[in-house]
């Protein structure tokens, strides 16, 4: 008896050699085999008479072979086998290239079904290299045929056959993570039906039913996993902060907060009053005003005598936050301190002491702030201004570190709303989907080389008006030295040849002292900053009014959006110019999206649609496993239902310890185990 764990080499017709090759496709055991879902299907259900054949159509013809197949060698390496077949309406001429074994497979006077694309003319229809089998076999023709991902040495037929045998060997042991109740409530097919019909659908309708079940199941496992992690993280207790209003804080702000900002603040304050530890993500587009949200909560904690840590991804951002929060909070009696590696040893010591003694209410620094073991007197809130997403596992590790202050993570990377709820399924999410009023749209242009001179002149004109300009080149993949060289050469050219009269600076990811360069640029000591994507990270230079991106085709949409977010931050009309580079269709579509919208969420939805989740997230930064059948881009409605089902199951069995939930637990472990191992 075979089960999901059975090695495929023991499956009939597979054997050791094929099993080795199939391992390259990630197929090791029966479970992998039945989950090697087709990447598409070919409709071979239409059966026509010869007289009905339409040129160009791919159809089946049931016909009798009328002569012995004739083989001819046209030239070395090109053999042609010809045969004619007929039915009661006409004759079909069939040609096979380089398939000399055909002559042993087709017999005069016998009936076959041929499937292929019709060529020739209506009166003289032809087929080249058709698929065929004896009439009545129904294993290759007359069916909806699966198309599989293949690898060297595994033909479509071998793959189909292995799957057929695998399905048969599974008998009643198909993997099934769906509890019966869920399956019934959501009217989902049983596992056997689903696996059989996903590979060899009896009809398009049955294929849909099978797909729906498998997609639901996969998203259900994922949602249950996120829920499980969230519960496991525990009802960790958090300090209770009596809730009150933020009137005093709001009154001190130089602007009126947007509704979305207030909502985020309110949601976080509710968490902090709840008795449970807050674990909230604030997601907001560039410039949506996340800093003010973080500041509000630091103020909230300080008013109640507790300390906060405010962590930025870079020193330059930490300094920026220090200036902003200091100006805002000090007048309200909140003491703000800065702790970075750039401080002199003595200053560092003093700040640390002040933090330890509780003389500082809000400590601002880089992410090293906590890891360096800074002692707080009474740390109750950590605000993380996070650029890069943490994987689920990393978050779990952080949470497990023991001490558990309330945590608020602010992410500037807009991800599609629907996706946020999965990726951050173990966190609560607030979304700031509104920009402060009066923001000017950054005018965006995608241009070719012939505009280069004009763009340079435009940059010169803006600098003449007192503005500053960014030039960004793509990161060079091969090596950092290469990258440095590319960006340096480019900067040198701009300085020496194009803008000899202007002040040009360079900043590069691996460069020592890049923070100093960027600070100097922020202070207006340079007119032009040539950089790689280091500037993606939220620098705020309101005087910068033009962003020029070289080889924009090499950037993803979300990345371009982040880059564009570096301008239009002040009162000046701002522009973004994208040099198309060696653009193609998909580049054009990406750049079109950039021209059309400034909405980061919409851009991320498009990005996801155009690139698929794999590329969208890059190297699995999201810490999520790869989905085999469901798609983050198109199965979002199913996701919601699956999520609800998962919540119901976990509510009844929070540790999934019931025997009925063992398969679900197994699937979760497998899903995340794989994500770690791969
Ligand atoms: P991000 O969400 O990208 O971190 P910031 O917090 O840096 O955005 O805010 C961007 C700019 O918008 C800052 O100069 C900030 O002072 C300003 N700002 C934030 N909220 C508002 C608001 N409600 N009205 C007007 N300006 C605001
Ligand atoms: Mg920010």
Q: Please, could you describe this protein's structure?
A:
With 678 residues, the chain is of the alpha/beta class. The chain has four domains: 46-142, Nucleic acid-binding proteins (OB fold (Dihydrolipoamide Acetyltransferase, E2P)); 176-234 and 648-678, no CATH class; 247-432, P-loop containing nucleotide triphosphate hydrolases (Rossmann fold); 443-615, P-loop containing nucleotide triphosphate hydrolases (Rossmann fold, 3-Layer(aba) Sandwich), CATH 3.40.50. Helix content is 40%, strand content 19%. Strands 13-14-12-15-16-11-17 form a seven-stranded parallel sheet, with helices on both faces. A six-stranded parallel sheet has the order 18-23-22-19-21-20, with helices on both faces. β5 and β6 (90-97) form a beta hairpin. The longest helix has 30 residues, at 204-233. The radius of gyration is 32 Å and the shape is globular. The protein starts with 14 loop residues before the first helix and ends with a helix. Bound molecules: adenosine-5'-diphosphate (ADP) and magnesium ion. Adenosine-5'-diphosphate binds at residues 255-258, 261, 284, 286-292, 412, 436, 538, 540.
Task: Offer a few descriptive terms.
678 residues; Rossmann fold; binds adenosine-5'-diphosphate; 40% helix; binds magnesium ion; 19% strand; disordered C terminus; globular; alpha/beta; OB fold (Dihydrolipoamide Acetyltransferase, E2P)
């Amino acid at each position: 008896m075979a089960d999901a764990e059975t090695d495929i080499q023991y499956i009939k017709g597979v054997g050791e050699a094929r099993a080795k090759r199939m391992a390259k496709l990630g197929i090791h055991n029966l479970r992998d085999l039945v989950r090697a879902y087709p990447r598409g299907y070919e409709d071979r259900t239409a059966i026509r008479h010869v007289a009905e054949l339409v040129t160009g159509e791919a159809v089946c013809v049931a016909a009798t072979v009328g002569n012995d197949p004739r083989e001819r060698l046209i030239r070395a390496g090109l053999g042609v086998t010809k045969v004619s077949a007929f039915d009661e309406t006409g004759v079909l001429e069939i040609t096979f290239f380089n398939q000399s074994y055909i002559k042993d497979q087709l017999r005069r006077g016998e009936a076959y079904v041929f499937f292929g694309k019709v060529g020739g003319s209506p009166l003289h229809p032809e087929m080249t290299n058709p698929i065929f089998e004896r009439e009545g076999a129904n294993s290759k023709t007359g069916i909806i045929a699966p198309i599989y991902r293949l690898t060297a040495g595994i033909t479509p037929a071998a793959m189909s056959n292995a799957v057929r045998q695998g399905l048969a060997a599974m008998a009643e042991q198909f993997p099934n993570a769906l509890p019966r109740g869920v399956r019934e409530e959501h009217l989902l097919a049983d596992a056997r039906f689903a696996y059989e019909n996903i590979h060899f659908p009896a009809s398009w309708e049955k294929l849909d039913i099978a797909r729906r079940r498998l997609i639901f199941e996969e998203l259900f496992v994922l949602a249950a996993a996120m829920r499980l992690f969230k519960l496991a993280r525990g009802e960790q207790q958090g300090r209770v902060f009596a809730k009150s209003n933020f009137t005093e804080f709001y009154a001190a702000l130089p602007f009126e907060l947007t509704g979305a900002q207030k909502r985020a603040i309110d949601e976080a304050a509710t968490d902090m009053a709840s008795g449970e530890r807050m674990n909230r993500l604030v997601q907001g587009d560039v410039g949506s005003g996340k800093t003010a949200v973080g500041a509000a909560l630091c103020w909230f904690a300080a008013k109640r005598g507790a300390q906060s840590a405010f962590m930025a991804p870079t020193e330059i951002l930490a300094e920026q936050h220090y200036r902003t929060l200091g100006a805002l909070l000090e007048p309200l009696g909140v003491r703000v301190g800065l702790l970075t590696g750039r401080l002199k040893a003595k200053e560092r010591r003093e700040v640390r002491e002040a933090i330890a003694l509780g003389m500082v209410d809000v400590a601002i620094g880089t992410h090293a702030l906590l890891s360096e073991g800074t002692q707080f007197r009474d740390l109750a809130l950590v605000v993380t201004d996070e650029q890069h997403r943490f994987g689920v596992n990393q978050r779990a590790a952080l949470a497990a570190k023991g001490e558990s202050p309330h945590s608020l993570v602010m992410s500037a990377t807009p991800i599609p709303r629907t996706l946020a709820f999965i990726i951050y399924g173990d966190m609560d999410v607030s979304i700031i989907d509104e920009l402060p009023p009066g923001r000017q749209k950054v005018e965006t242009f995608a241009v070719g080389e012939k505009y280069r001179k004009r763009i340079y002149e435009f940059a010169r004109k803006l600098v003449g008006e007192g503005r500053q300009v960014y030039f960004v080149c793509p990161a060079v993949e091969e090596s950092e030295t290469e990258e440095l060289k590319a960006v340096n050469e480019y900067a040198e050219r701009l300085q020496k040849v194009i803008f000899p009269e202007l002040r040009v600076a360079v900043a590069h990811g691996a460069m020592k002292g890049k923070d100093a360069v960027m600070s100097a640029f922020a202070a207006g000591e340079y007119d032009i900053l040539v950089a790689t994507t280091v500037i993606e990270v939220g620098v705020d230079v309101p005087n910068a009014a033009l962003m020029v991106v070289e080889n924009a085709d090499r950037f993803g949409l979300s990345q371009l959006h982040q880059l564009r977010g570096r301008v239009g931050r002040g009162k000046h009309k701002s522009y973004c110019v994208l040099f198309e580079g060696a653009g193609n269709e998909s580049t054009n579509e990406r750049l079109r999206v950039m021209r059309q919208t400034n909405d980061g969420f919409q851009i991320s939805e498009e990005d996801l649609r155009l690139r698929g989740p794999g590329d969208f997230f890059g190297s699995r930064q999201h810490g999520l496993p790869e989905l085999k059948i469901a798609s983050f881009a198109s199965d979002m409605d199913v996701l919601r239902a699956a999520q609800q089902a998962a919540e119901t199951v976990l509510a009844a069995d929070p540790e999934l310890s019931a025997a009925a939930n063992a398969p679900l637990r197994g699937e979760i472990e497998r899903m995340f185990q794989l994500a770690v191992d791969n």
